[in-house]
Amino acid sequence: MSDSIILGIESSCDDTSAAIIKGNCILSNIAANQAIHKEYGGVVPELASRAHQQNIIPVVEKSLTKANIQQNAISAIGFTRGPGLLGSLLVGTSFAKSLAMSLNVPLIEVNHLQAHILAHFIADANPMPPQFPFLCLTVSGGHTMIVLVRDYFDMEIIGKTIDDAAGEAFDKIGKIFDLDYPAGPIIDRLAKEGNPDAFTFNKPKMEGYDYSFSGIKTSVLYYIQKEVKKNPDFIKENLNDLCASVQRTIIEILMTKLEKAAKELNIKEVAIAGGVSANSALRKVMEDNHEKLGWNIYIPKFEYTTDNAAMIAMVAQLKFERGEFTDLRTSATAKYDL
Ligand code: KG4
Ligand code: ZN
User: Fold this and answer.
1) Which is nearest to 18 in space by CA: 51, 63, 52, 84?
2) How far apart are CA 98 and CA 41, in angstroms?
3) Model-level pTM?
4) Where along this sequence does the record place binding of Fe cation (predicted)?
5) In whole angstroms, how far apart are CA 326 and each of 105, 252, 331?
6) Superfamily name with CATH number, domain 5-119+305-322
7) What CA–CA distance (Å, rounded) separates 309 from 323?
8) Is the beta carbon of 13 within 6 A of some atom in ligand 1?
9) How would residue 331 be classed by pLDDT, with cut points 50, 70 and 90?
10) Which atom belonging to ligand 1 lies closest to the Cα atom of 12?
């Protein structure tokens, strides 16, 4: 891999992030999270794009300072073109375009989903990078899919959710429990003190490798409504057990299909990526499957799981080597296939 220095910019949802990569080593990875959305129980697109506007320059400046890099050392600029919230993507895209123009360096567009997967090739993401072909369970607030990765830029979605994403299920169920947004990390923490077998919630019956998460959300909602009528303190008194049971169910749904795909395709290289791959119980099941099923598992370093610019810089580096540059007339896109 070349030793070029590249700036990566991520602004697809509610995190403004900038990172500097040299070869495949991350020199800095800075993120400004937008606490404002907590008050609304979810990301408000208009507020997100305004906050990106405020954050982007300080975040990029910090990434350069932390990496101890001058602007003129940058060989190219990579940015998230999509998928994501259009107003948010526009901020990063416009900024990347202007900076590339003023520094007179190539511009490189990055698909956010590819970036979650290719984060595994950052030098310190794993002790060893995955070998092709591998399966990658990509689970975030917006996406849930099993991807067959044949090469860096040869990916095929073999299964995906037909409704909610797994992260969305964590967040929406968390809202029923009156937890802050995003609820995924809070449920993870509370579940550690709870009994995962305390409650049983419906699991969907889906064909092939596809997923559905709207059923579990409804199942939890109806159950809670029924119990709260009998005991208004039901949630408070059972919160840890509820979180542990919901988490167990979501992970069982995710892993059943991943195990089926690995078995049927005879692949033992198995990775997880995206925000939900930060979940401690999901990481534990992956480790168990290393023992039980002989999988070689790839669980990215925590800071490369939720949205970050390091993964964007990694993809930009791979495209830079291939000479895959983007025209300055490019524009952000809310939908962007793998
Ligand atoms: O990848 P990401 O940062 O943003 C998207 O591209 O969506 O993923 C965010 C999602 C949220 O739904 C959040 O609740 C979930 O990842 N998440 C978790 C954990 N950490 C983040 N879900 C379960 N357990 C966690 N520890
Ligand atoms: Zn993401």
Assistant:
1) 63
2) 34
3) 0.95
4) 112, 116, 307
5) 11, 41, 10
6) ATPase, nucleotide binding domain (3.30.420.40)
7) 20
8) yes
9) very high
10) 6
Indicate whether 29 pLDDT > 80: yes
Coil, helix or strand at residue 299: coil
Residue nearest to atom 8 of ligand 1 (CA): 275
- Establish whether residue 279 lines the binding site of ligand 1, counting it when its CB lies within 6 angstroms of any ligand atom: yes
Q: Residues 101-111: pLDDT tens digits?
A: 999 999 999 99
171 known member of a binding site = yes
Kindly state if the Cβ of 121 falls inside 6 Å of ligand 1: no
Residue the block writes with tokens 């405020």: 54
Give the domain 131-299 fold. Nucleotidyltransferase; domain 5 (3.30.420)
- How far apart CA 104 and CA 114 sit, in angstroms, is 26
Residue 326 assigned as binding residue: no
* Rounded-to-integer distance, Cα 91 and Cα 47, Å: 12
For a pocket test of ligand 1, which of 168, 180, 285, 306 has the largest count of ligand atoms closer than 8 A to its C-beta? 306
171 lines ligand 1 (CB under 6 A): yes
Neighbours of 195 (CB within 10 A): 14
Report CA 248 to chain centroid distance, whole Å: 20
The answer for 8, left when phi > 0, alpha when psi is -120 to 50, beta otherwise, is beta
Domain residues of the chain, as ranges? 5-119+305-322, 131-299
